[in-house]
Structures are given as C-alpha cells and as structure tokens.
Amino acid sequence: MSRFELIAAECADHDIATLTELLGVSRSGYYAWEARQRRTEPTARQQWRRDLEVKILAHWKESKRTYGSPRITADLHAAGVSVSVNTVAAIMAEMGIEGISPRTFKVKTTVVDPAASFPPDRVGRIFDQGRLDAVWTSDITYLTCGEGDAYLCAIRDEHSRRVLGWSVADHMRTELVEQAVDAAVFTRGGSVAGTILHSDRGSQYTSHDLAKACSDHGLRRSMGATGICWDNAGSESLWSTVKHEYYKRHAFTTYANLTAGLDNYLHYYNHDRRHSSLGMISPIDFEIAARINQQSS
After folding, report:
1. Cα-atom radius of gyration of the chain, to the nearest Å?
2. For residue 220, what pLDDT is reported?
3. Which of 248, 274, 276, 275 is CA-nearest to residue 262?
4. Regarding beta strands 163-169 and 135-145, do their DSSP bridges make them parallel or antiparallel, or are they unpaired?
5. Taking a C-beta distance cutoff of 8 angstroms, is the pair 121, 222 a contact?
6. Measured distance CA(134)–CA(136) in Å, rounded
7. How many percent of the chain have pLDDT more than 90?
8. Euclidean distance between CA atoms 19 and 5, whole angstroms
9. How many CA atoms lie within 13 A of 190 on its CB side?
10. SS3 content of the chain, % helix, strand, coil (to 5)
11. In CATH, what number does 135-296 get?
12. Please, are residues 204 and 140 in contact by the beta-carbon 8 Å criterion?
C-alpha cells in the first residue's frame, strides 16, 4: 500500500494535514493523487492507444486474420495514422494476435514425360523483368475436398504478382492448364504475343496440345529444371501463400465449395492483399500505377 493509499484509508478518522505530515508527503501531492483516482476520462495518450488497438484489430480481421505488423502498419499509414511498425508489433503481441508466415514450399505434382522435348529456360530465374506481361509463371498444386482430390492451376504475371487466370478440376490433364491459359489471355484482352509462359517440366506443359495453344496465343514457352523449386519460384511462392493464408484454414465439403472459396480468396489476393514485393500495395493497384507511369513517360 502506498502512502497516499494509506492516507485515503485513514482520512475518515484523522486530519489529512496530520497524516501527510506524519507520512512525509505534501497535501497538494495527496490531493493530486486523489484527483487522478477519481478521473474517469482516459488521458490523451491512453485514448490514442485504445483507438490504435481498435484500428489494428479491424485491419487484422479485414485481412482475414493473415496480416502481420508490416502490412497492418501499411494499412494504417494509408489511412493517415502515423505509427511505427515496432509499435504495431508490440500492440499485436499484447493483444495476442499475429499474422501468417508462409512456410517453405515443396514440389509434389510434377510428372515428367520421358519422351517429351523441352523448350529452353528463357527466364534464368529472373522472373520480374521490369514490365507487365514479360513473364508469366504457371504450375499445378494438389488440393482436396469432401468429394475427393482436386488440382489447381494458375497463371501469374511476375511483374505485378497478379493471378491472371486459374482453373481447378479433379484431374491433372492438359485441359486444366489450357483453361487457366485461356483465362489469363482473356484477362489481358487477347494481346499477349511475345509473353513468356514459364513452367516446370510436367507432362501437361510439354504436351502437344498445350504447345499448340501457346502458339495460337503467341506465348513463348519456357521451362526450368525438374524438381528444382527455385526454377519456378514465382508459382511456388503463390502456392505457399494460398495454402497457408486460405486453404489450410478452411474445410471444403464439395468441389463447388472449394471453387467458390478459391474465387473469393484470389479476388482478395489480386485486389486487396498488400504485397511486400510491390511496396505494400495490391497487384491491381500496382498495375494501375504502372500503366499510368507508362502513359506519362
């Protein structure tokens, strides 16, 4: 018990002046302490902290509980709130909330056709070549739902990180990739001649049907080595994000349920999710800025 608390406990039976003199404190100090105990309004600092906690929690929930302190700080800065990433990190730790960090990815769906011929590696692990539609990457990943196995194929622009097209099915036949390619070409309005489509050496990508589809669209095929994830790092990074931020946090009873969920998440990924590699903006915002800069230059 502090001396001020002792005075408060005894002041009903003893004179405050006597108590303060006996305990070696000033009367003004005691009255100031007493006023602070009666205060119901928080200080400006306390109110700022409470407001910040509310905003941090709101942004964390809006990110589907995936954002850590760097992305939430970017959200707050965009909203005009001046705060450091260390402060946000400390508050998140006190509140018991945290972001999701994708784990190391593994390649599991590449089946090589030993009789196939392979196009050259036109990328050399330089996936972002400084402009939109310079390099697209593609891959297939394994998923599952209550109705059985499922496979997701996606096409991503490596400059903007935007998922341009995707398809999901209960098989890994070539048409799974063709559907994703057609969707990506449609997203770009059909003008994709000269764009590199980079993939691993899976049989779907070495097939005659896909080679013809790429030729019809003017896409230039490129392939990395078999079983080396770094040769298709863009796609593997996408799978790591999709699975740890969305897929592994939900259960899917049907193919329709899985497809609808992926559609919602990939829309969020393109339009709202902040990407650290893009300066903490979304792929769509990055593409808008890139096209404005191109027109003004």
Report:
1. 29
2. 96
3. 248
4. unpaired
5. yes
6. 7
7. 57
8. 11
9. 1
10. 50, 15, 35
11. 3.30.420.10
12. yes
Residue 17 burial (10 A CB sphere; 0-12, 13-18, 19+): exposed
Element housing 258 (H / E)? helix 255-271
| Helical (H) or strand (E) element with 141 | strand 135-145
For tokens 């005894």, what's the residue?
10
DSSP for 93-124, please give it.
HHHT---------------B-TT------SST
Residue 267 sits at the vertex; the CA angle it makes with 265 and 273, to the nearest 5 degrees, is 80
Q: Name the pairing type of β-strands 196-199 and 220-223.
A: parallel
Rounded to 10 degrees, the C-alpha dihedral 187/188/194/198 comes to -30
Give per-residue burial for 53-82: e unless 16+ CB within 10 Å, then b: eebbeebbeebbebbbbebbbbbbeeeebe
Helix (H, G, I), strand (E, B) or coil at 223: strand
**pLDDT tens digits, residue range 119-177?**
999 998 999 999 999 999 999 999 999 999 999 999 999 999 999 999 999 999 999 99
Residue 220 to residues 47, 124, 216: CA-CA distances in angstroms? 58, 14, 10
Between CA 212 and CA 222, with CA 216 as vertex, the angle to 5 degrees is 65
d(CA 108, CA 142) in angstroms, rounded, equals 8
211: left (phi over 0), alpha (psi -120 to 50) or beta: alpha
Residue 37 exposed, middle or buried by CB count within 10 Å (0-12, 13-18, 19+) = exposed
Query: Cα–Cα distances in Å, from 51 out to 4, 45, 48, 63?
Result: 31, 10, 5, 19
